[in-house]
């Protein structure tokens, strides 16, 4: 993609508005908490302290809107407390330029490294740096700085208390995640009616798994309909796939296929009803025709062998889903979510792992620290006043990837232009008093919260207007600062965009590494499944091994998809992996995972006869996967000689080869065809990236 096209696409995405993200009740609660904080602080301590408390309460609500499964009060408290510390430490050093420059460099570097812990932590840390640049200008002494820090923390406490006292759709995020997983299974069942080999994106199941992690206290309060349904949804996917696949005994035409389509349609209807019930906390409404189709005795007459077993298994799993949706299912265990203090050692290990050459997170941290320092020096040197607008813009728009940084820069400038212009016109015309300006600020905050999830441009209009109203409340003439705010915003955004062009962290050159990681994880998952065919009666933890390998394969697939979407907007060449090759390789690995999933759906029982040839195939998969992953990284064609020999030995052993195993072999051949070798001498080998520690 050329630079012109990349800039055009990122600008368009930055100005896009998604109207489905409106949440008025959450916005109203956040604005109510902000009003309580501002009015109370204004009456007790005066306008300047009220401005500080307003920033703390405002940022606490922004933190609760982030995509996180941690309890919202915890996010509000963490945001308010960290901003209070940043403000106090920043005020102590702001009088000494060299010391303050060192502080914001270290603070921004730490905020950049925080992205290694996830987007929620990264956004909160970056926002703290941005708001700290404003709040440190308000106190006039160390004692008042401590007071401002205290009221900032109090703003977070008030918002956390309101979340507890005025809950809005309690467990709503967890309900949505589980309902989305069930709805994705329903959509999959419908697609299988038309395409018996349709692919399935496991991302909804992954989100539901993340949402299912709760603390022991939350586990005692979790609604009954959130117990166990996710595990049933995980089991449904391979059952649906094996029931529809012609390789397992159901012909593509005839009465058996019509019976399978009927079962898939009934399953989709039941799953949709269960998803609706879970989402809204109400009993499921199950249509009688769907229940009748699942209970029809024709199953015994039309379906035999593996399809019949899959049909019976499907009926049993759907019964479990409906019982759970009614709240009648047995209480299942829960995935523990450790407290923030328990996460600290793991977080430090994760950040330490990013301190390596080539880490995109480290490059983002260095880039951010450099740009913020340069923006602050430029804002201070220019005769415009209010120089903090430039570094504040830079730290707010910078993200670890190209597309978000450029899209947010365009949206930030457009939003600031509109927000500052409108707010300035209002306050200059109406000339509101202190309390009236506070009311306008709360109104702007409500608008920001309302559109926060619809797009950054719309949200930034409200944020800019909010800051103007707060500064007017604090006694600053808004009309005198409009030009410099816009100019400094433009400077900060341009420096952020320029920094990514000069010191980028392109995802395109790393696509082959991502593909190799996914290939390795998929082969390990397939090997774990195949290995169980060779020793079904051994009392080991094969099921846990398969589950761990499956989760690792899903994580690798998601990392590949994220990298591919980022690379699509980057103005760089394909570096050895064209769009066509990437699509073909992704389809081949999806087919590989599907073959392993189909084999998992028909794992032999403990009393079944072992298949000795399966052990050879599992060993060959593990051995060839290591070499193939290395070949993909080095831009060579992967080879599967051992796997081909193991499959041939399985056929020669007069054992019936599993259709899933045959599908695995086909997928590996298709992957090799999708990745032709580079012409000329082999390039210098690219060393594999070390496995990062598990994220908290």
TrEMBL record:
Pfam family, one: FUSC_2
Coiled coil: none
Residues in Integral membrane bound transporter domain copies: 376-498
Location relative to the cell: Cell membrane
Gene Ontology cellular-component terms listed: plasma membrane
Annotated region (Disordered), positions in chain: 667-696
Main location: membrane
Recorded topology in the membrane: Multi-pass membrane protein
Protein name as annotated: Integral membrane bound transporter domain-containing protein
Keywords: Cell membrane, Membrane, Transmembrane, Transmembrane helix
Biased composition regions of type Pro residues, renumbered to the chain: 678-690
Transmembrane stretches, start-end: 31-62, 123-143, 149-168, 365-389, 409-427, 434-451, 457-474, 486-506
Family, per entry: Belongs to the YccS/YhfK family.
